[in-house]
Amino acid sequence: MTDAHRSTDKDRTAPAQPRESAPTAKVRSHQEDEAVSRAGHLSPRLVYHVVLRAGEEELMRPTSSLVFSGIAAGMLISMSVLAEAVFRAYLPEAGWRPLVENIGYTIGFLLVILSRMQLFTENTITTVLPLLTRPGPRCARGLARLWGIVLGANLIGCFAAAAFYALTQAIPPEVAAAMAELSHHATGAGAAAGFAKAIPAGILIAALVWMLSSGDQEHFWIIFIFTWLIAAGDFTHIVAGAVEMAYLLILGELAPGPAILSFFLPVLAGNVVGGTVVFTLTAWGQVREEIAPDTAQTRADDRRAR
């Protein structure tokens, strides 16, 4: 065999030398990149746009849809008051009882939020972002329209549910007594305390909406923990509290004047301050510079559309 043949055979049998990777070589495959994107959290800018789009869709919904969805939400949120009353009626007196009975408060919120019903406090963030993106009379009117319709519809549902509990024998006497006790506690704090207690509740509901839009799939536990904390912290939510207010009004145990001036209006203001002024403006502030080009383009498109 010639030297050339031996050299060729040697080249065939010699192990291939590993090549040095280029500094810019791709570490992950396309499929791995997609998996990382799905597994990763959305950036604050993307979460902002998710919530913004939801708010824009809500502002465009027909009045009838908002009314029926809001009434359903008002009726379903009453399950929070009912479930908490059931726990209080049947649990023994103990130091741990409030922490357990407050689990019942989560039931109505789970029903409303997972069913995509219209709850007023959710709109303190979702429908405010379009106004921050496109400030002007048109968006302001749309926001006022939606808030008025949803809050009014929520109250109709709350009063309907409260009337059912108060005027029928649907719930046992011990549960009815526990519901009255809870309602007196919720509505008897006074205007200043009611306003202060409503601010953390507004922040928590707005934060809940923000987190549900971030791409996480554990919606049940996010809603459960946040709404349990509202009850455990003795904070006040205007729609769930409206069920308690309506229950006492129908029973004749609360006068309309104190109900409106000492409970309803202060708690409503506190929820709006917590959800809109504190959380929404803070969340908007962290992405304002990042979304500035998008906002400028949106406003230019609006001007051309006119």
UniProtKB/TrEMBL annotation:
Please list where the region (Disordered) is annotated: 1-37
Q: Which UniProt keywords apply?
A: Membrane, Transmembrane, Transmembrane helix
Q: Where in the cell is it found?
A: Membrane
Q: Which GO terms describe its cellular component?
A: plasma membrane
Q: Pfam family of this protein, just one?
A: Form_Nir_trans
Q: What is its main location?
A: membrane
The Basic and acidic residues compositionally biased stretches are 1-13
Membrane topology of the entry: Multi-pass membrane protein
Which InterPro entries does the UniProt entry name for this protein? Aquaporin-like, For/NO2_transpt
Protein name per UniProt: Putative transport
